[in-house]
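Researcher: Re-running this chain for the archive, since the previous output was lost when a drive failed. Same request as before.
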Amino acid sequence: MKNAGKNENAGKNERDGSYESHASHASHSSHSSHSSHASHGPNDPQEFQAPQGSQGTSSCSPERLLPPRGDYQTLLSYQKSEVVYDITFRFAHQYLTRGDRTIDQMIQAARSGKQNILEGSKAAVTSKETEIKLTSVARASLEELLEDYRDFLRVRDLAQWEKDSRQASYVRQLGRESPQTYELYRGIVESRPREVIANIAICLIHQTNYLLDRRLRRLEQDFVAGGGLRERMTRVRLAQRNKPPGK
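Model: Regenerated structure tokens:
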């Protein structure tokens, strides 16, 4: 099973993805790859969910002890990670040899990415530190999965798409649809050859990792600026103590 720690960050309205509708073109791509950038374009995605602790507050309103609970299902990074898991589960069972340990490793890495985004969002209610840690674990797990897909293509002499290829651009376009679900990709994934599916997964992992990087940077900034639960508790107590009588 694969897990680890790395980086993600939050923004406001994430959008990203891509793959060419006539995926028959996809298997003809013979580009060597910098597909680590395959999901990055001028319209880079941002998270739907506002940063924890910044929702519904202003300089005039009192600070809340516990911020609104994170709704992980509105995070595009979570939606994309779920698509990655669904694709990986099918891919590993269909294209890897039965008994190959890589099957479980890829599925567990995909699951770890998805579940740690979920758990991090839920933990945000009481612990910014835990949210950062779990988001980092999600980021690292997906990086491991990314390397597994690259290995799959490399050792079989199959092409990885270039960042600006027609196929990668199409997957980016699909990634701008909302919400992101496996159904958006089902027709392609269940009718195209293995190298196309692996490349789609690579594009989606890059998109998800980009969002997680942005989310982590934002979480770190928020933590530096406002601290965690203990600091909030102190500020709320002091604000209550300094309140004028009768208010």
